């Protein structure tokens, strides 16, 4: 988008969508097939295993909606619209909370209701975000040739996304290692760690937000070959960070 190459951008968007959906379907299938083995590997107790299996199975089914919603949010930020993703994130959180209350307190669905509320909130925001994008982003007027699968665009997406995916995977693996050790101690220890981890995630989300903003800015200026602006924002960010 930064280079203002409309045709190439549309093809990049469609091929990125193909990649995201394909990966999320693979994750869905692997999750449903191997989730019991994974939870056994990290020593989930027999007491918790049925509920964990129920929750994770529903969440895996909703992985496609979550992936598409995150992709839409990334496109909006790349288009220079950071407020839209924030509003949809707030809406998703509100829908999730009220969905939890409805499915658990009214329908008495237990842990399945919590998971169902999560994926339904993501599905609703996914659809609403797409409608919003169609109205706000003129570039989303696709032609027939834009839907063609292009290996070069797929590989470019993979090349750009792999470093961050690897970084996030390391964090997830480290979390699983710690979780595996805690699961041998008992449910109270697991609950305490989960609560502390949630608080830590809330604080880290601030840093993650700055990182997302900087990466979007960098990508736009890289496409426009404005390397001086990239250097300047990196310098300013580091100075403000340490101050």
Feature tags:
243 residues, mainly alpha, 2 domains, 83% helix, 0% strand
Textual characterization of the structure:
This protein folds into 2 domains: 6-161, no CATH class; 185-243, no CATH class. By secondary structure, the protein is mainly alpha-helical. It starts with 5 loop residues before the first helix and ends with a helix. The protein contains 8 helices and no strands. The protein has helices at 6-41, 49-61, 63-78, 83-106, 111-136, 151-183, 187-223, 227-242. Helix content is 83%, strand content 0%. The model has no long low-confidence stretch (mean pLDDT 80).
Could you give a quick summary of the protein structure above?
By secondary structure, the chain is an all-alpha fold. The protein is 83% helix and 0% strand. 14% of the residues are buried.
The proportion of residues forming helix, as a percent range, comes to over 70%
- N- and C-termini, Cα separation: 33 Å
The assigned structural class equals mainly alpha
The major sheet is characterized as: none
The low-pLDDT segments are none
Rg measurement, Å: 20 Å
- The fraction of residues in strands falls at under 5%
Order of helices and strands: HHHHHHHH
Domain count = 2
Shape: globular
What's the total helix number?
A: 8
What is the typical, i.e. mean, pLDDT? 80
* E-strand count: 0
Describe the secondary structure blueprint for this structure.
Blueprint: H1 6-41, H2 49-61, H3 63-78, H4 83-106, H5 111-136, H6 151-183, H7 187-223, H8 227-242
Helix pairs in contact: 1-2, 1-3, 1-6, 2-5, 3-5, 4-5, 7-8
